[in-house]
Design goal:
It contains seven helices and four strands; from the N terminus they run αβααβαβαβαα. By secondary structure, the chain is an alpha/beta fold. The chain has two domains: 165 residues, CRAL-TRIO lipid binding domain (Phosphatidylinositol Transfer Protein Sec14p); 46 residues. The chain has a four-stranded parallel beta sheet with strand order 1-2-3-4. Strand 2, helix 4 and strand 3 form a beta-alpha-beta unit. The longest helix has 34 residues. One of its GO terms (molecular function) is guanyl-nucleotide exchange factor activity. It comes from Spodoptera exigua (Beet armyworm). Keywords: Guanine-nucleotide releasing factor.
Length: 224
């Protein structure tokens, strides 16, 4: 992904990878799905790679992903799904603690798809009762994806969660690149237009059309 698609302040030489690099491994996703209450969804898919991302990289990635929904949607707060069906219970706690330490928005609820193996399921049944009170947000531990359907329509969930939402991560990244390039171009045009208008206001436009044209030509030549 081109570095031109970075969000403001996300590629400024801080520690670790920039947003462009952090989007590819799918540590977390903003698929565009909404809960039944129309709040946006952030998903932490079961890719067994979350332990690789550093705290500063995590902050950088979440700042970007939470900026993807509209301001109106983001102001309503987020639902979060943590899918760890193929992982260990300890990995669930890792994500929850990271979210507790930093999440750039209001968290309405966190849904945990707990590990499916017999041993990990037994651990989760004991541990989930103990840690729920540790967090300032609501945590719902789900034994299966079917339990998610009480809160999400299948049309808003991706196929890995048993849903019908058509989502290609590669296409999503390409769309974000195009959008970021367009946004950057619009900012540049707006900035140049502001500069030009200030120059027009500050200069003497003259008293006749010929003098005015000469001044405008002069301004144009300065930009070439």
């Amino acid at each position: 992904m081109s570095t031109e698609a970075e969000c403001d302040g996300c590629g400024d030489g801080d520690e670790g990878r920039n947003v462009s690099e952090l989007l590819l491994p799918q540590y977390a996703l903003a698929t565009g799905g909404l809960a039944r209450d129309h709040r946006p969804l952030i998903t932490f898919p079961d890719n067994n790679n979350f332990h690789i991302i550093t705290p500063s990289e995590y902050r950088r990635l979440l700042l970007y992903l939470t900026s993807v929904p509209s301001l109106l949607e983001a102001d309503m707060g987020f639902h979060i799904i943590i899918d760890r069906r193929k992982d260990r219970w300890n990995s669930v706690k890792t994500v929850l603690l990271r979210i507790s330490e930093f999440f750039p928005g209001i968290i309405h609820a966190v849904y945990v798809l707990r590990p499916a193996s017999f041993l990990q399921k037994a651990l989760s049944e004991v541990s989930s009762k103990l840690f729920k009170e540790e967090f300032r947000f609501r945590v719902l531990v789900c034994s299966s994806v079917e339990e998610l359907y009480e809160h999400f329509d299948r049309s808003q969930l991706t196929a890995d969660l048993g849903g019908d939402l058509q989502y290609s991560h590669a296409e999503w990244i390409q769309q974000r690149i195009a959008l970021e390039k367009f946004s950057t171009l619009m900012k540049e045009i707006s900035s140049k237009l502001d500069e030009f208008m200030h120059e027009i206001v500050d200069c003497d436009m003259g008293n006749d059309p010929t003098q005015t044209k000469d001044l405008l030509d002069c301004q144009e030549n300065r930009r070439v």
